[in-house]
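Appendix B, record 7
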Amino acid sequence: MSHGTISQRTMESLGVPNIDGGGHYIRTIEWDMMNKYKFFPLSMLSSFSVRCMLYPFTVIKTRIQIQRHSEIYKGTFDAFQKIFKYEGFGGLYKGFWVSAFQLVSGIFYITTYENVRQFLQQRGVQDSRIRALIGGGCASLVGQTIIVPFDVISQHMMVLGQLEGRGKSKAVVNPLNIDYQGQRKPQIALDIVRTLYKKDGLRGFYRGYMASISAYVPNSALWWSFYHFYQEQLARISPEGTSTLLLQCIAAPLGGVTTVLLTNPLDIVQRTGGFGHTFRILWSEEQLGVFTKGLSPRLFQSVIFSFTIILGYESVKRFSVNDEYKKEVKW
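Structure tokens (predicted):
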């Protein structure tokens, strides 16, 4: 592709003026600008690293959201201390290896997202926020269809053995009545799979699927849309020569916070089961607290996750960009 073609494309939707004079530089690296043989392995490595670092927050968030009121954990740090004290370091990584299968769905997710954005651009949709909104929603639909069974198993492992209630009513969480004492994690996971299948068949692995779609599709769509929105706003007010990657790493947490504030009740319903009935139960128990239940750990997780995933993702895209575009890409 000629230099003139690159510049024209950049001017249309991707770039901002280059302060060195001499054309434009690319702010958003598109799907067809990358070497996929570099992109896929680097992307998986980046995602796995982020997942290793942030998984304890997922466990904490899940446990806080499924508890009644605040009878066990008073907040993020209280949950961290209690899990670490009573279950050890491994308690913060319950269900991790099952959850790690999300790396597979992650590849389908990002491939869908990037290709939908490219498809829309080719059809004349130039607004990056609209393309991100639709792309993020489609990506989440594909990703959730693949990952929900693994997520169901992972969540069972996260809460297995957790104490619930107070005094004489205190009980150990074990909804499937699995003999997990002294068992290794792979064996526990296999027991969960067998019990779920025996109890509900394949449908048991997609329990809460519609609630999951209702929570994650709008969450993903809004996150990507806000990410591009904040990125554009920051680019307008930032001094010339400001690092594009820096702006992206600031835009991502801002988009994450905005999305969390808008979608928190949907996430709670997704974690606890069916939509309508579950929301009514939560409302009767929590009232307006349903809008803030688990909000603190989710905000904390979202800020860190948004920052780290975009730092990794945008860096991987820069490392994977084809040689013909390298001079057009600004860090």
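Remarks on this record: The radius of gyration is 22 Å. The mean pLDDT is 77.
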